[in-house]
Amino acid sequence: MSLTRTRASALFLFAAVLTVSGQQSSPVNRPWPPDVQKVSPDSPALSPADALKTFYMPPGYRVELVASEPLVQDPIVMDWDRQGRIWVVEMPGFVPNLSAPEPFMEPIGKIVVLEDTNRDGVMDKRTVFADGLVLPRALKVLDQGVLVGEPPYAWLMKDTNGDLKMDTKEQVTDLYGRREARVEQNTNDFYWAMDNWMHTANADTYLRFKGGKFEVRQTLTRGEWGVTQDDAGRIYRNTNESSVHVDYVPTPYFLRNPALVRTRGSYEALRDEANAVNVVWPVRPNPGTNRAYQFGIDRPDGTLNRFTAVCGPQIYRGDRLPSELYGNMFVVDPAANLVSRIVIEDDGRGLRARKGYEKGEFLASTDERFRPVWLSNAPDGTLYIVDMYRGVIQQRADITEYLRDHIVTRKLEQPNALGRIYRVVHETTKRDTTSTAAQLTSAQLVERLSHPNGWWRDLAQRTLVERGDKSVAPSLTELSKTAKDWKTRLHALWTLDGLDAIEPAVVVTALDDQAREVRAAAIRISERWLAQPNGPVTAAVLKRLDDREWPVRHQLAASLGVMTGEARDRAVVTLLDSGADDPIVLDAALSGLRGSEQAVLERLLQVEGGTTPQREAAVTMLAATLARGAQDGAVQKLLGSIGDESRQAWQRAALMRGAEVALLGAAMPGSPGRRG
Question: Domain boundaries in the chain?
Fold first, then answer.
C-alpha cells in the first residue's frame, strides 16, 4: 500500500472508536487536526484514554490498551511466561530529574508481573517480583527462573513457593556490561535465538543454558537497544540513525582472526538505494531532539527528517495480523513518537530493506510524551508496544543546552512513574486466547514447532532445550526430515542440536534439504564433526561448495574455518575463486584461516587462468590480512611477491593493493553497505 502525505490533508483515516470487553482502543475516522503544526506551550501528560486519540495508523489497524499506570510504571522491556503473563522491567532511575547524576545509581528498579485475571485482554493485577535493583535493563523468563540483567551482573532469580516474588538469586556472570556505564551505552537483552544462544545488544558477551548451567561466550559489540531474529535465525539490531542491521554471518566467527581488516556480514546495514529506509514521517513537529537546532535535522515544517533514536527492533512473526506484515521489521523511535514498519526483501544476492509506506508510518502520535521503547511478538499472535510515556527520553549526560531549554519550557521533566503497554490489532484480528503452555508435555511442545505463530515455535524449542528431555529426539529427527514447512524442519534441527541429540546422518540429510535456510543451518551444526577430515559429514559439507544460494555460501565460508590443514585450504581456495566478489563470503572465509593466509594465498596465485574479479578481491584481502598481522616473515614475503617481476601483472597489482589497504588505509573491494 502506498501512502502519500501532504500537510493540508489527513495522513490516514480510521474506523469508529471501539470498546471491546472493557478495552480502550485508538480512534479511527478522525481527520488530521488542522492545528497539528502548532506547538503548544507545554505537553501535558495525557490519560490513557486521551493518549489513544492521538494515534494515527493505516486503515483497518488500531491499538488497544493492555496496561497503564499505576499497574505499570516507567516500563522499558517486557517478556512473556508460559502462562501468558507479562513480565516488565521498570526503570524509574532513568533521568528522574535534570539535576540527578548520570548514571542514577539508586536501587529503585523493579521487575513486575502483570496478569489478566478475568481474561478480557486487559491486565488487572500487578505483582512486584523483584525490587531494589540498580538500572536493570533486561530479562528473560526461563523454566529455570528469571534471567535479569543488572550490569555488571546477570542474575538468575527464582520464585520457590509460587507467589510470583523472588526468593533466591544467583549470579550467572559479572561480565554483563559495566555498572558505571551510562544507560544508553550499556548491555541489554537476552534474546534466545534459533541457535540456542541468548544474544545481547551493546555487549561483547552471549549466554547459553546447556547441561544445567550457563555458558558465557565472547563476541564483538553490536547494536544499541534490543535484538530480534527472522525465521531463518538471522540476528537483527539497530542504533540511533540506522534502523536495520543484520548478521548474515554470526558475529563471534570474526573474533577468530585478529588480523582481519573488516568484518563484512556482521551487523550489515540494510537499506534501499536512496536510504529512504531511515527517513521518518512524524505527525507532529519534533523540536525536542538533541540537535534539532542544526540545519537538516528537522524539515521546514518542524518534523524530524530521519531516525535519531531508533531502537527496539522486532521481526513480526505472528499469525493474527494481516499476512503482509509477516517477516517485516518493526522499530520504534521515541524521539519521533512513532513505530515504523520496514519491509525486508531478498534480491537474490542478499537482503534489502524499504519503508512499509511512502511518506507514512505504521503508528505515529501527536503526543510528545508517547515514547515507544520496546516491541514484542505475543502468544496471541499480535504485536505489543511498550510505551515508557514520559517527557525526557535523552540520558541526562548527553542533553544539550538547547534540549534542556526545550524540556524546561514545555514542562517535560515531570511527571514520571507513568507507562503504557498496547496491543496492535487489525479489524480482521481474532486473538489466540485459547492456548496456554503452562502444562504442555514434551511431546506437545514438539507439535508446537509447527505452529504458525513464531512465538510458539520459539517457546517450544527453548523449553525443550531447557528440559533436556532427549526422549523426544526420534520425533524431532522425523520432523527435521518430513515436516512440510521448512521453518519447522529448521526448529527441529536446532532443538536436536540444543539437546546434544543430533546425529551425523540427520545433518547429512539436512545438507540436501530443498530449503536453503535448512542447508545453511545444517552446515553450521555440522561443525561438531568438521575437524574430522575424512568423515561423512565433512564430505557432505564440501559438496555444498557448488551451492549458489547466498545463505549457504555465507555460512559455508564461516564454517570451513573449523576444518584444519590442507583440506581446509583447498576448500577455501575453491570457494574464494568462485565467490570472493561477495565481500561477506570473503571476510567470513578469512576469519577462519588464523595464520594460514599465506598458504591459501599461494594456492590461489597458482590457480590456472587469468584475472577475475573474484581472484583479484581474494588476493587483495589475503594480502591485507597478512600485512595487518605484522609478522615480519609474512610481510617480507609479501613485499617480495609484489616486487617479483615474473608474476602476472594483475597479481602484483592485487598484492600491492592489499598492502595499501592494511598499511595506508586504502579503500577495500566491496565498500561497507554494499555487496561487491
Answer: 9-68+270-430
